[in-house]
Specification:
The chain is mainly beta. It is about 5% helix and about 50% strand. The structure holds beta-D-fructofuranose. InterPro entries: ConA-like_dom_sf, GH32_Enzymes, Glyco_hydro_32, Glyco_hydro_32_AS, Glyco_hydro_32_C, Glyco_hydro_32_N, Glyco_hydro_beta-prop_sf, Suc6P_hydrolase.
Length: about 500
């Protein structure tokens, strides 16, 4: 991996020669791993989804962006709008690091509506002369023509006493007519925390600390990034991405985690009584998700299909990462369920179906192959001890999903998937389902797989980098028969 100097990482897009950018763009376009129905960077590195909102008939989806290569350098917001969250129109940079306060990065933040106008609250990342981090929370107004005007100074100038400058990622929400911002923080004992601010006297420019949220997680990692708060089915839900949690069995296997707490939050006392922290995704590549309300009033989640500090195979091509497909959230049996956005059905083409016993499928299924598709597998009768689905297969590659009927576990094995991130040691992810496996709904794009188990009960999201000719789909069983219904759609995004 080529090392990037600090100077190179903090080079401004505006200072780079157009022809250099064009060369990089052309290089990225030739990558065989480019996605077709996921948001991906045109060059450079994408990370967190930012500023998600449905506003005046349009969706706004931005993401963290370092344009010049696959490293975490000077961050911008790249913006898309969409009519349906299925296809997206790119608009380029919407927020750039052009003030003293955000000179070293326009970091993550959220969108909200205030008196009929669209605003962003985000973290301004600044480094002083000794390279000490200075974090503040900034506001920007989005004009009708898509340009933005930043307020000339931060609305929250620095972290409160008792906390370090790891103070970022404000999510603004409204409750009972009052605007609040929930912000990720680290206290002086280097423990992750969440801070709540409110707009004083309902003035946009004056945000005051309400206090630290009192959760039942006393020592749970060193930093909590990208918090989110929302109400769903009369419950309070808090999402966040904690860093510094040790793996425990099948849980918390990735470098950093993201998950949720469901409970009741008292905004007067800041007491949050909640259940256990549950990971949102059990795959290899998922982090920093955010939610918003869609045009139908549904709560939608989009995540970053990637993780910090992991080296991906496309890094050498000058780009990395993508966003996940949007997922609709509900609470069922006290847990979040996540289903692919219904509107994604618009991408479906060339439906193919098959019905039969699993180990007869290798022959019957030969036409069922591809690189971009949705596959729904209904398990109608299962007498096997193990059930195997191999996707993107060839003589050399195979992405293997195993279901163990007795243990009710799903295993995703990407050891033979193709190229791999070079600093992730384990090659499988396991999750134990709450109920026996009835259905898998799998979205495959050129270099990713998103596996929804049992109609939203569990999701496993991963990047995979198979070769171009690995397009097969296979199924087989161990001791016993399984009767299956396959439904496959080609998904037609934009190449
Ligand atoms: C999460 C994160 C955020 C921060 C942003 C910077 O991935 O570290 O906490 O705002 O990325 O790009």
């Amino acid at each position: 991996m080529t090392e990037w100097s600090r100077e190179e990482r903090y080079r401004r897009l505006e200072d780079v020669d157009q022809s250099q950018l064009e060369t990089l763009k052309q290089q990225v376009e030739t990558s065989m791993y480019r996605q077709t129905f996921h948001i991906q960077p045109e060059t450079g590195l994408l990370n967190d989804p930012n500023g998600l909102i449905y506003f005046k008939g349009k969706y706004y989806v931005s993401h963290q962006w370092f344009p010049l290569g696959a490293v975490h350098g000077l961050k911008y917001w790249f913006n898309y709008t969409s009519k349906d969250l299925v296809t997206f129109e790119p608009h380029g940079v919407i927020l750039k690091p052009d003030t003293l306060y955000d000179s070293h990065g326009v970091y993550s933040g959220s969108a909200f509506e205030w008196e009929g106008q669209l605003y962003y609250m985000y973290t301004g990342n600044h480094r002083d002369e000794s390279w000490n981090r200075v974090a503040s929370q900034m506001l920007a107004k989005v004009e009708e023509d898509g340009t933005v005007k930043k307020l000339d100074k931060p609305v929250i100038a620095h972290q409160p006493k008792g906390y370090t400058s790891h103070f970022r990622d404000p999510k603004v929400f409204q409750k009972d007519g009052q605007y609040y911002a929930i912000i990720g923080a680290q206290n002086n004992e280097e423990l992750g925390r969440l801070l709540l601010y409110k707009a004083e006297n309902n003035q946009l420019e004056e945000w005051a600390l309400v206090g630290e949220l009192k959760t039942e997680l006393e020592a749970f990692g060193f930093m909590w990034e990208c918090p989110d708060y929302f109400e769903l089915d009369n419950k309070d839900v808090i999402l966040f991405s904690p860093q510094g949690i040790e793996a425990q069995g099948d849980q918390f296997r990735n470098i950093y985690q993201s998950g949720y707490l469901i409970g009741n939050l008292d905004l007067e006392t800041l007491q949050f009584n909640h259940g256990e922290f549950i990971e949102l995704d059990n795959g290899f590549d998922f982090y920093a998700p955010q939610t918003f309300i869609d045009e139908h009033g549904k709560r939608i989640l989009i995540g970053w299909m990637g993780l910090p500090e992991i080296n991906y195979p496309t890094d050498s091509e000058g780009w990395a990462h993508c966003l996940t497909i949007p997922r609709e959230l509900t609470i069922e049996e006290g847990k979040l369920h996540q289903r692919p956005l219904k509107a994604l059905e618009k991408l479906r083409q060339n439906k193919e179906t098959a019905l039969g016993y699993a180990n007869k499928f290798p022959t019957t299924l030969r036409p069922y192959e591809g690189k971009q598709y949705e596959l729904i597998i209904d398990i109608l009768d299962n007498e096997a001890s193990e059930l195997y689905f191999e996707l993107r297969t060839s003589k050399l590659n195979s992405t293997l999903i195993t279901y163990n009927s007795k243990q009710q576990t799903i295993t995703l094995d990407r050891s033979e998937s193709g190229l791999l991130p070079d600093n992730v040691e384990d090659l499988t992810r396991n999750t134990t389902l709450d109920t026996p496996l009835k259905q898998l709904q799998i979205f495959v794009d050129t270099s990713s797989i998103e596996i929804f188990c049992n109609d939203g009960e569990r999701v496993l999201t991963s990047r995979i980098f198979p070769d171009d000719i690995s397009t097969g789909i296979k199924t087989s069983t161990e001791s016993g028969q399984v009767y299956l219904q396959f439904t496959k759609y080609e998904l037609k995004g934009e190449d």
